[in-house]
Specification:
The structure holds two protein chains of two kinds. Chain A is α+β, with helices and mostly antiparallel strands. Chain A is 35% helix and 27% strand. In chain A, strand 6 and strand 7 form a beta hairpin. The mean pLDDT of chain A is 97. Chain A has three domains: 47 residues, Uridine Diphospho-n-acetylenolpyruvylglucosamine Reductase, domain 2; 110 residues, Uridine Diphospho-n-acetylenolpyruvylglucosamine Reductase, domain 3 (2-Layer Sandwich); 105 residues, Enolase-like, domain 1, CATH 3.30.390.50. By secondary structure, chain B is of the alpha+beta class. Chain B folds into two domains: 76 residues, Roll (Ubiquitin-like (UB roll)), CATH 3.10.20; 75 residues, DNA polymerase, domain 1. In chain B, 38% of the residues lie in helices and 15% in strands. A five-stranded mixed beta sheet of chain B has the order 2-1-5-3-4, sandwiched between helices. In chain B, helix 3 crosses helix 6. Chain B is globular. The relative contact order of chain B is 0.15. Classes of the chains: A alpha+beta, B alpha+beta. At the A-B interface, helix 2 and helix 6 of A face strand 4 of B.
């Protein structure tokens, strides 16, 4: 499978990369690990004339755990898994990264590419919505932060403009119990359905809950109503049922080779129930 | 499209070639450099038959443009055996029937070679998790896992004996 022909660039700085994007407006794309973009290029679903490889751009790699957790966009999934600091501060990230792709793909695939590509099958976008993360975008007019919950517009369409580069993601230290539950057909597959849950408790009751679902719509689904259904409860069967029912109103899965709509809704209900139970057990 | 000048260090040797930016690393290895050990299986980053070692990490060379690898140090299955003959892993695959048709074997061994450097004392579960990016349609994996575990203990015994 051969992609269309393109010019290849390997800039050393964000400024240099932005300049190339500016010179070839609408015809240039940045590539991080390439494990979402290159398959699309091979299928010629993406036709790019100018490919800007970010691997040599300084300052885009690394994990900083201080007041907030900041992860450089070019940090690979393997580097996320290897970070003890991140595992201690945000164990939800570790639990999810272990379920993404396979070792070779995790060596190339980056968190920035995973969230910026807007592929509904990717796991990190839902996770970022669960954690209420922000994405830092740099463009010709400077830098801006966009909430993960506001970033996704449709499959492969996000609020990132063509002349912007996503340079970092950041989020507050997550509190309480967590779980990432993913149902997939095999290692490396996209989720049939996946649920990211973070729950905090006070006085034996849920004080806050965040629920996000993956691959059940053309964008990740953060279900505010589902989280709200758990607040003030002890996560008993009735509360979980209410949270699942609220979530089911927010998702809109399509039929594909992972199954018909009814099956996906069933799997979504099961994975969310399991994720809530596990998150609550870890509060 | 104009060709690019690409320099690589492959199996300890410096090589250079011209390639279009859109040529995949696996295509350049096989067709321009004559290294036909890494195989093209699915060509969609699922099967791992094209696995090579790129700057100390296992990668699928069907999902990397050669241009992205420009300047890199690469090890392919051709570089795994030493001057004294086959690598312990290669012998172990033979000994434990870790292959039948052999198509996946170069990728399997190149990945296992890196896995045993990342984790010299893996459990069976570690091996299965670490080899999850390589598919085999013949063996059912049991003998592959057995071969890798046996190679790990042989390499560790040799290391102890040397100390």
């Amino acid at each position: 499978m051969i992609t269309n022909a393109f010019e290849y660039y390997r800039p050393k700085s964000v400024a240099e990369a932005l300049k190339i994007l500016g010179e070839h407006e609408g015809e240039a794309r940045v590539v991080a690990g390439g494990h979402s973009l290159i398959p699309m290029m091979k299928l010629r679903m993406a036709q790019i004339s100018h490919l800007v490889d970010l691997q040599d751009v300084s300052g885009l790699k690394g994990i900083t755990v201080s007041d907030r957790i900041v992860i450089g966009a070019m940090t690979t999934q393997a580097e996320l898994l290897a970070s003890r600091e991140l595992a201690a501060a945000a164990p939800l990230m570790l639990e999810a990264a272990l379920q993404i792709a396979d070792p070779q793909v995790r060596n190339m695939g980056t968190i920035g590419g995973n969230v910026a590509n807007g592929d509904p099958g990717n796991d990190m976008p839902g996770l970022m919505q669960c954690l209420d993360a922000s994405f830092t975008l740099v463009g010709p007019d400077g830098s801006r932060d966009v909430k993960a919950r506001d970033f996704y517009q449709a499959a492969y369409f996000t609020s990132r403009t063509d002349d912007e580069i996503l340079v970092a993601i950041s989020f507050e230290h997550p509190k309480g119990g967590y779980a990432y539950e993913k149902q997939k057909r095999k290692i490396g597959d996209y989720a049939t359905a996946a649920a990211a849950v973070q729950i905090t408790a006070a006085g034996g009751m849920v004080s806050a809950a965040s629920v996000a679902m993956t691959n059940l719509s053309d964008v990740p689904v953060w279900s505010a109503a589902s989280g709200a259904a758990l607040v003030g409860t002890t996560c008993g069967p009735d509360a979980v049922k209410a949270a699942v029912e609220a979530m089911l109103k927010d998702i809109n899965p399509g039929e594909d080779n992972r199954g018909p709509v009814a099956f996906k809704r069933q799997v979504a209900a099961v994975v969310l129930g399991r994720a809530i139970a596990r998150a609550w057990s870890r509060v | 499209m104009k060709k690019m000048h690409i320099e690589l260090t492959i199996n300890g040797k410096q090589v250079e070639t011209l390639a279009e930016p859109r040529e995949l690393l696996i295509h350049v290895l096989r067709e321009r450099l004559g290294l036909t050990g890494p195989h093209i299986g699915c060509e969609t980053s699922h099967c791992g038959a094209c696995t090579v070692d790129l700057n100390g990490k296992s990668v699928k060379s069907c999902t990397i443009f050669a241009a992205q690898a420009n300047g890199a140090t690469i090890t392919t299955i051709e570089g795994i055996a030493g001057p004294d003959g086959m690598h312990v892993l290669q012998n172990s695959f033979r000994e434990h029937h870790g292959l039948q048709c052999g198509f996946c074997t170069p990728g399997m061994i190149t990945r296992a070679w890196r896995l045993l450097q990342e984790n010299p004392t893996p459990t069976e579960e570690d091996v299965r998790f670490g080899m999850a990016g390589n598919l085999c349609r013949c063996t059912g994996y049991q003998n592959i896992v057995k071969a890798i575990l046996a190679a790990a203990s042989e390499l560790n015994s040799a290391k102890e004996a040397a100390q």
